[in-house]
Amino acid sequence: MSFFSELKRRNVFRVGIAYLIGSWLLAQIADLLIDNIGAPDWVMKTLFVVLALGFFIALFFAWAFELTPEGVKRESEVDRSQSIANVTGRKLDRSIIVILLLALGYFAWDKYSTPPQPAAPAAAGTTALVEAQEIDKSIAVLPFVNMSADADNEYFSDGLSEELLNLLAKVDGLKVAARTSSFKFKKSEADISEIGEQLHVAHVLEGSVRKSGNQARITAQLIKVDDGFHLWSETYDRDLDNIFEVQDEIAKAIVDALKLPLLGHDAKPLTSTTATDNFAAYDLYLLGRHHTREYSEENFKRANEYFLKALEIDPSFAAAYSGLADGYIFLANFGNLPMGEAYQLARAAAEKALSIDPDSPEAHTSIGLLLWNLNHHREAEAHFLKALQVNPNYVGAMLQYRDSLNNQFRITEAMRMTDRAMNTDPLSYSVRRSVADELIYTLQYDDSLKVIQEFLAANPEDPTPYELWGNLFRKKGLPQNAIPMYRNAHRLRPGDIYMAFRNVESGLRLNDENLTAHWLKVAQNRGADAQWTRRAERETMYVRGDFSGLLKQTDQTLETLPGHIGFQYLRAIALMNLGKVD
């Protein structure tokens, strides 16, 4: 009898599956309880370690012992003709089904349960007051209108709006609609009440900029959404060398108008997020940021040229280093810059930004993204959380953290992060993409297809809808339909290893050796150490039976993710197939 058959006979696989599903359910319930009672982080970490160790103990007992009518005995002591392992196996099958139904029930409850009903009528007034106070502390910064004679100065008015938004986002207790949502209303005819309703805010800041030479006239006004009342307005005539002071003045005036708590006890608690006193460097920085929002290899290269010019003028400009780091990461995914080189350059730029400004949320997010791509999820998580601590409204960190949580199978936490991003940035392209991913994951195919078709209608040359459509076909068990979608996405985003990984996975499912080998080579050539390349290699090793290679790679990964149940399970499979488990 083969080793594999003996594992099946002794119910080792059934015990492993039951244990993993039960552990997942226990971890989700524990996570909910620990959140509610405010237990320290080490409690959850300890639980994960115990569950991981318990997995191997359970497999050992399933292999070495057997349940008999006389009780538990060592397997070697049981007469094979008297064994009731098949009866025990059927009981385990039923147990697995029951545990799986419980897990699915919990998942459905956690995702779709309705929010708590309001308190009794006597407390209704208090509840409404609290909600009103929370809503009152919310604002959207609309893109300031460029009234300069030169239309090319629009990047400056947009940049001023964004810097004001970034300043306000750091005010404790203030909810600020993210840039991607508020800028949807650029040159829009929508009225203030409609804007407030769509962005879920109670106040709107709007204004205009007239720039001429080294002079600028900036007009700003704060409007209350529900009645259109102007809480505050001001006009500033300034030399552009003093633009940073104007930003601080406007932000402080808004905070005072909303009567929100200030940061510290200084008369001027808010300081410019750009951290430079040189207007020429600042102007180049705004041009760089303007081009990073136009997703193409040409625009990312141009953006980095502007950031580098800004740094020539002011070598201590932290925000420009952060922009440079993002530009290199984008060029790794959207261009032909070798991934290893891109990541090295990006990390150096982000670390330089942090050495100048240790609290830069952009730099922390950039480093977190690099670490995540290299499979260092715990270190990446620390940077994402630091970015959100400094700027709780930073949607970029939310979405990157959400992806990291998903990759660690912390699905409930990931969904909460998506909801948080959706609440902060409801009209964001990136957030809607994350929502589409969740719709696919939860088998809501019709709703996800609607989002995909909306993306395609807006821009047929956008790689995202093809990626999502491929994921939809993959989830439906149609890899042959997913492949052309992934190929299209890769054509439009040539540096994306994730698309190569998905094609490797599809090739393995179709038993297509040529397809698998081609796309595995594409991934390895782009980035040998990138997490999606490593995952493509693991799946290929597993299907081809290369358990020595699989064991080596899972051991390397577990050095940075010691409590990861998925990798522990892969390691156990590799060991069993190599005959290294007694």
Number of helices: 26
Number of strands: 8
User: How widely separated are the two ends?
Assistant: 16 Å
Rg estimate, integer Å? 28 Å
Principal-axes geometry comes out as elongated
Quick check: average pLDDT?
75
User: What structural class do you assign from the helix and strand content?
Assistant: alpha/beta
Throw out a few tags for this protein.
582 residues, alpha/beta, 26 helices, 66% helix, elongated
Can you characterise this structure?
This protein is of the alpha/beta class and 582 residues long. It has 26 helices and eight strands. Strands 3, 4, 5, 6, 7 and 8 form a six-stranded mixed sheet that branches. Helix 6 (154-169) crosses helix 10 (279-292) and helix 21 runs antiparallel to helix 22 (497-509). The protein starts with a helix and ends in a 5-residue tail after the last helix.
SSE layout:
Blueprint: H1 3-9, H2 12-37, H3 41-64, E1 65-68, E2 71-74, H4 85-112, H5 121-136, E3 138-141, E4 145-146, H6 154-169, E5 175-176, H7 179-182, H8 192-199, E6 203-212, E7 215-224, E8 230-239, H9 243-258, H10 279-292, H11 297-313, H12 318-334, H13 339-356, H14 361-373, H15 377-390, H16 395-407, H17 411-424, H18 429-441, H19 445-458, H20 463-475, H21 479-492, H22 497-509, H23 513-526, H24 531-544, H25 547-558, H26 565-577
Parallel strand pairs: 3-5, 3-6, 4-6
Antiparallel strand pairs: 1-2, 6-7, 7-8
Helix pairs in contact: 2-3, 2-4, 3-26, 6-9, 6-10, 10-11, 10-12, 11-12, 12-13, 12-14, 13-14, 14-15, 14-16, 15-16, 16-17, 17-18, 18-19, 18-20, 19-20, 20-21, 21-22, 22-23, 22-24, 23-24, 24-25, 25-26
